[in-house]
Amino acid sequence: MALIFYPLAIVFWEMLLRILDDVNPFWDISLIPMVLFSLSFGFLLSFVFLIIKNKRFSRILSAIVLFLLAFVFFFEYNCISFYKIYYGLFYAIGMTGQVLGEFADLAGEVALGNIGMAVFFALPFIFYIVFAKKIIADDTDKLHRKRPLVLIPFAALMLAAVMFMRLGPKADVYTYAFSVPGCVPATGLLTALRLDLCYRIIGTPEEGVKTGAEQTALWTPQAPAKPASSASVNAAVSGNSAVSGNAVSENAAEEPVVYGYNAAVDFAALIDEESDPAYKSMHEYFGSLEPTQQNEYTGIFKDKNLILLTAEAFSPYAVDKDFTPTLYKMANESFVFTDYYQPGWGLSTTGGEFSNMTGLIPLWLDGSHSFLRSVGDAMPYAAGNLFGSAGYVCRAYHNSAFDYYDRDKTHPNLGYDYKGIGNGLKMELGGWPYSDLGMLEATTDEIIEEHLRTGVPFHTYYMTVSGHCNYSWGANAMSAKHKAEAQAAFPDESPTVQAYKACNKELDLALEYLLKRLDEEGILEDTVICMGADHYPYAMSKGEPDYYCEMSGIDDTAADISRYRNTLILYCAAIKEPVVVDTPCSSVDIMPTLANLFGIDYDSRLYSGRDIFAMNYEAGVASGTMPLVILPVSGGYSFVSPAGQYDAHSRSFTPNEGVEVEDGYVDKAKAIVSDRLKYARLIISKDYYRRAVAVGEE
Asked: What is the structure's pLDDT at 212?
């Protein structure tokens, strides 16, 4: 009976987890390797427990293993149902101490909310307890000589599954692109955890980079470089120019301006001097790309102050003309982005922060993630280091535990003097989540006073927390604070939606306070405020009903592109008329866009994103300079470009009206997506900035 029970038990757990996964599709070719791996693992358990001669010990050990497996599957179910991500055990264990701190109540609430499902995950364990003596019977000694035969189906199934993964369409997630969140939908949970352990011991296989022969010729500019004119800059700041329909209006200069390119690294020189084949191939790849072209908006904010915020679980539906008037003002004045996305990177808050602050796609690397892996790497193009190199005073603040997500390691490495609760940020705490207004009140005077005293521009980064889940009157102090206002403003909406909007009222008040203080000190027009989300409030869609659908009025899921539409705020009071921007863009575009706006030298080829205002592309042609929003969904990558939208879930491309695409457009665009992912991974895993930027810009 053991030969039947253990394989079926593993298949049951894997199938149950897959059925309950509302992020990844159930019917998919990955069902084949999942079943093969599950059966092989079940046969391995059968062999282990049958080969033990002491049957009482074997039954006890089997019970312990089955209980632990039930717990692990239930734990991962909680992760995917609430956080929309699977966690590797090593990463989860590393986060345990932090979760048991400020987030203990939230974690407990999640587990209790799903406690009914625990019974289903416990079914194989319960069945075993009842029938243990039949599953591992005393008379199995008679089969002693035949026990090794159990290894035959194990080996055959394992070999078939491995070959399927190695040669199949998802070979990357099994090898060099491995991550637990990406591998679970492709192979099943136990195989993902096995690989997580294996790769932590021997290292993740490295992806090959293109050889020099596979690269295109190194890019060379087709026109002489010339910086933007002062007339162009003045026109933009005074409100006499606009970006709409992917075209820039003519500026006030009498002669046409020939713009230069955001290209600061001499890759040809790097190639000549490089002895390491891997780095040389990377130099050749980046050198083959066309940089983004400077434009009418290059340098319009030169020497102004910058305040950059990542807003916890921010969404377009937190913006309301009457309820959150400051958010509404900032989103609809200065620059207005009509096609902005905050991708669900699969790393919760830390992924959104990383993309906002570095311009790189965040990925899982060797059981960790890009942000944590970047500690110790040279990160010259991250926000703090980039603006610090331009002479700015750079500070970062977070109104929660200073070391959560290891921010005490990551943020200083990005160039910030970083403070959070527990290492220098002094503010009234109250109930969880803590006040964004309180954080701004506790920090703004220090920043402004030093600037007024020294005249040195400042760049300040804030990671907010008032918008954090859960969204209920009892579990969210900021929601409770603004309960009456939200209920009066949105009487027909559910308490969950009301509570979400209520807690974002605190963010609105924080920004209102910020604008007021900047205006009082006479530096409002000298300060740029940029704000994006870390992720949409996925906690609103943790079950049925999907409250995010209620709030948005769109019947979609986490597999749909529409779920990731968001709002980017880029506000400066010096911009007198709104500049409407309908270029598709996302969080990885924030840093290259800011670098261009502030006139800081950088090489656009070394970001995953691009300057949103760069115009050197054609809508229907797939190129390295085209606007490209990459969205990890349904185990694949959807994308949005000026030509249309590609849905990875349905594998269909919908062109925009009036746009004719070149032959093979989708395949070319998918290849560009693949390259962006590959080199975002290599930049961090190989500490490439240290090799390229530090040498190439000398």
From this structure: 45
Pick the residue with more confidence: 218 or 100? Answer: 218
- Alpha-helical runs (H) found in 335-435: 348-358, 370-373, 383-389, 407-413
- pTM of this structure: 0.87
Residue with tokens 């990406």, as numbered in its chain? 182
Confidence band for 94, pLDDT divided at 50, 70 and 90: low
Residues 38 and 11 sit within 8 Å (Cβ to Cβ): yes
- Cα separations (Å) of 182 from 166, 635, 658? 15, 7, 36
Helix (H) or strand (E) holding 271: helix 267-273
pLDDT for 224: 39
Q: Please count the CA atoms within 13 angstroms of the CA of 316 that sit on its side-chain side.
A: 19
Question: What DSSP element (H or E) covers 131?
Answer: helix 123-135
Alpha-helix residue ranges (DSSP H) falling in 277-347: 277-288, 325-332
Q: Return the structure tokens found at 309.
A: 């915020």
DSSP 632-680: EETTEEEEEETTEEEETTTTEEEEPTT-PPPTTHHHHHHHHHHHHHHHH
Q: What's the distance, CA 447 to chain centroid?
A: 29
- Alpha carbon distances (Å) from 143 to 7, 46, 51: 19, 13, 9
Q: Check if the beta carbon of residue 21 is closer than 8 Å to that of residue 80.
A: yes
CB within 8 Å of 24: residues ≥ 6 apart: 18, 184, 185, 634, 635
Q: Give the pairing of strands 340-341 and 364-365.
A: unpaired
Across 610-634, b (16+ Cβ under 10 Å) vs e yields bbbbbbbbebbebbbbbbbbbbbbb
pLDDT tens readout for residues 509-532: 999 999 999 999 999 999 999 999
What is 230-696's CATH number? Answer: 3.40.720.10
- Alpha carbon distance 191, 166 (integer Å): 14
Give me the mean pLDDT over the 155-173 stretch.
79
DSSP code of 321?
A: T
Tell me what percent of the chain is helix, strand and coil, each rounded to the nearest 5.
50, 10, 40
The answer for residues whose C-beta is within 8 angstroms of residue 350's C-beta and 6 or more apart is 362, 369, 371, 372, 405
* Number of C-beta neighbours around residue 402 at 10 A: 18
CA 539, CA 483: separation in Å to the nearest integer? 19
Biggest CA pair distance of the chain: 97
> Where do the domains of the chain lie?
2-202, 230-696
| Contact status, residue 461 vs residue 383, Cβ threshold 8 Å | yes
**226: pLDDT strictly greater than 70:** no
In terms of Cα–Cα distance, which of 538, 504, 135 is closest to 349?
A: 538
**Token pair 């200073």 is at which residue?**
402
C-alpha distance across the termini of the chain, in Å: 70
CA distance 99 to 87: 13
The structure tokens listed for 294 are 């400077």
| DSSP string covering 497-550 | HHHHHHHHHHHHHHHHHHHHHHHHTT-STTEEEEEEESS--GGGGSSSS-HHHH
**Collapsing DSSP states into helix, strand and coil, what is residue 54?**
coil
Provide the pairing of β-strand 636-641 with 629-633: antiparallel
Determine the pLDDT at residue 433: 95
- Map 429-463 to HEC letters: CCCCCCCHHHHHHHHHHHHHHHHHHHCCCEEEEEE
